[in-house]
Amino acid sequence: AQKVTQAQTEISVVEKEDVTLDCVYETRDTTYYLFWYKQPPSGELVFLIRRNSFDEQNEISGRYSWNFQKSTSSFNFTITASQVVDSAVYFCALSDLDRGSTLGRLYFGRGTQLTVWP
Amino acid sequence: EAQVTQNPRYLITVTGKKLTVTCSQNMNHEYMSWYRQDPGLGLRQIYYSMNVEVTDKGDVPEGYKVSRKEKRNFPLILESPSPNQTSLYFCASNGQGTEAFFGQGTRLTVV
To answer: How far away is chain B from the Cα of A69, in angstroms, using its nearest Cα?
Structure first.
């Protein structure tokens, strides 16, 4: 069965520290997508990145970077030089593409609350 | 502008009084779903729909109903709300393999 685990419930760092949010997933499918979302204190869900299962290249976007490793079924998210505005709940999610009955369904982890102190 | 619109944003109701939360998307997405978010439990899927007239239960469907008569709309119905359904609700839509677009959320309080 599809499952996403974010073992870190809460993380606190001080501004300018680097922080990595872990995401481990389970799926029997060979074709799938992985996502990260951010939920700031205002409550909306903001899409950050999508990665398909055939592309293991790491991605960097400004202070954000993502490390996808199929060998360990992980899709970790690193914020470099964190800022107070990065404080939010971050969700990792999985979408499978092989199963007809659940095609397109998203499976979310429980989220990691990141607090960045000034 | 691509968006998912859900209404209302806030709702306080009494136990047993039927209510509907509306959700509409303008991206022609096949896939729509409802989630509830509770502290420490993340986003849990209530119902999802793969297309018009095709709906299925998610992880926490008890006490909820949905319908998908048109591709753009996916209302969430609480026939007899109870206090344990007090939560933050999100509607979402996506295409195959695309990111989900979320509505702004509905904060429901059942007293």
So the answer is: 19
pLDDT greater than 80 at residue A100: no
Checking if the pLDDT of A49 tops 90, the result is: yes
- What residues contact A72, with CB distance under 8 A and at least 6 apart? A24
Calpha distance A46→A37 (Å, rounded): 5
Q: Is B45 exposed, middle or buried (0-12, 13-18, 19+ CB in 10 A)?
A: buried
Chain A residues with CB-CB distance to B33 below 8 A? 105-106
Name the residue among A29, A58, A57, A33 with its Cα closest to residue A47. Answer: A33
Give pLDDT, residue A98: 59
Per-residue tokens: A45: 């869900």
Q: Provide the 8-state DSSP code for A86.
A: G
Question: In angstroms, rounded to a whole number, what is the distance separating the alpha carbons of residues A13 and A6?
Answer: 18
Confidence of residue A95 (pLDDT cuts 50, 70, 90): confident
What's the N-to-C CA distance of chain B in angstroms? 36
Q: Which of A2-16, A59-73, B34-48, B91-105 has the lowest mean pLDDT?
A: B91-105
Of B42, B88, B97, the CB nearest to A33: B97
Residue A91 φ/ψ, nearest 5 degrees? -115, 135
**Residue A116 corresponds to which tokens in the numbers above?**
């960045």
Identity of residue B32: M
* Average pLDDT per consecutive 10 residues, chain B (111 residues; last block may be shorter): 94 97 95 93 92 91 97 97 97 85 96 97
